[in-house]
Hints:
Blueprint: H1 29-47, H2 56-69, H3 75-82, H4 86-98, E1 102-106, E2 114-118, H5 120-141, H6 147-157, E3 179-184, H7 187-194, H8 196-203, E4 207-212, H9 214-225, E5 234-238, H10 242-247, H11 255-261, H12 270-275, E6 277-278, E7 281-282, E8 285-289, E9 292-297, H13 298-303, H14 312-322, E10 330-333, H15 340-352, E11 362-363, E12 366-367, H16 384-397, H17 409-418, E13 421-427, H18 432-435, E14 446-449, E15 461-462, E16 465-469, H19 476-489, H20 492-500, H21 509-512, H22 515-518, H23 522-532, E17 536-537, H24 547-562, H25 568-585
Parallel strand pairs: 3-4, 3-5, 10-13, 15-17
Antiparallel strand pairs: 1-2, 5-16, 6-7, 8-16, 9-13, 9-14, 11-12
Helix pairs in contact: 1-2, 2-3, 3-4, 5-6, 7-20, 15-16, 15-24, 24-25
Amino acid sequence: MSELLDESHPEGPYDSLSQMPMSKLSNTELFRFIEFIEKFEQVTDDGLSMSHGYRELRMMIHVMRNHLAGRLTTPTSLADASGLSYGTAKRGIEGIINRGLILSRPRTKSGKTVSLHPSHAMIEEWENYANRIKALLGETLDPKSDSSSRIVLEESYQSINVISPPAVLSQRLDLKGGLRVLMHADPTFMAMHNLKRQLEVIFGVSVNNKAKSVDSLREEILANARFSHSHYDIITCNLPWFGELASQNMLLPLDDFIDREGYNLSDFHPEAIHSSRYAGKQYGIPVQTSPELLCYRKDILESAGLTPPTTTEQLIRVAKALHDPGKGLYGIAWNAARGTPLGHTFAFLMAKFGQPIINLPRIDGGYAFEEATGDQRRPMFLSDAAFRACEYMLDILKYSPPDILQMSWYDRAKSYSSGEVSMAYCYTSLAPLFELNKRSPAWQNTGYLPHTVGNHGRSFAPIGGYSLAIPANLSEERVEAAWAALRHLTCRSMSKLYILNGSLVTSRFSVSQDPEVLALSPLINIVDGMARKDILQSWPRPPVPGITELITIAGNEIFEVLDGRRSIKKALSMAQDRADRLMREKGYC
């Protein structure tokens, strides 16, 4: 597929799902260790004369390998893999099941056929075994080390931060026709799709995914809400949509499930949790946190003797200094395409100058949006911050690529990844284009900062991302299974696997501290630090009813300013008139 964008692919070529997704679980350390043990056992068998008994090790390796690779294990396939006669292998398998290491799960309602899977206990045993073997190898290969250093080595291999691979559900999901998921088209959800085989083994049913770019995703959710019964079990919601969707009763509240199970939300980024609420109820569980950051080329700025900008004035100066159109090099890339892309830029730039796009009340550290009503939802297009935001866009427009007025999320990330620009505003969900791409000149040369600050502003990074939700019109008999799937898709172990399969974003603090995750990119730890310091903020694009329409109005009216067809004052006046009329007609304020 071509990487060129058109109006139907504003976020890149992620909405065409492969019919044969391939995961990268073989990159995990545990998978490599299992391969090593298998080869080690074969060498031992060939080189030593031993009585093998039930050969449980070979059977355990087969079950673990299949689980990580998303392949189904049956009693017959496991018996064949053991190299034993069927009767002997059957007794060995029963022994392992009785010890709670293998889970036997019915594949059909009748229970006549079963599949075999490693239990939580078995996965934990194998991880502990791997840690002890690695420590032993370190001791053997470095016999000069003293006992204290060997203890430290073993303890280092048993880090509490390492997250285990996910185990299967004890009961297959009761979902006729399989699990139906509507997802957003980005690298995180492509990673989820690439794990399709693993998820089908975990859930015991087929998984049917459909991916849409942001505007098409919202349209699909709204269309789905008009059916008597939802066509999806789980839908993916952009964080700003929760006010709109929940206020119109399109989403199922999750509080009863959360309270019933004592589900702990403290591991999630607080802003992502708050953005998935409305009127005191939780409607979504975060699956990715993707702030928009200022990305800059450390090598280029250093060579030019420039300091990374932290204010709007500094950014303009740096962009001007690095702008060299004669060499095909430009200062900065950003969302300037008409409609939603530019609307987001405008809202974030208003926030730089200390004013949300609506009249939210100020609180310590930001603005309150969860209880906003009436005049607090009044659009603020006629504010000083709105005018300054437009002036700032006109300033950086001079130092932008020639196609800037067609540029949206994927375009700006590609422009930065290719080396065309030295700076870009970019969501971290698209950072794999340069963080994981060794051919990009930005690879290992990128620095990250929160949004630069204007007058009256404070340092912040506008939070983006998605949460999973259950449609309110989902058939009642599917709701419990949908919740079980949603909970699993947002768990720590799955979030880690998304990252190991090409994503660089998570909504969980614990995942950001996993050693295998941290080793992939410095960006993960940077975002984690921002979340802990409350730099990630929702108020620049608050999840209140009407916000999507306001962003669309902004993106259309302000575009006329960038295109030179309208003055700032006239465009903002027209935007205010349209926004006031919209908010009155829909009863938003």
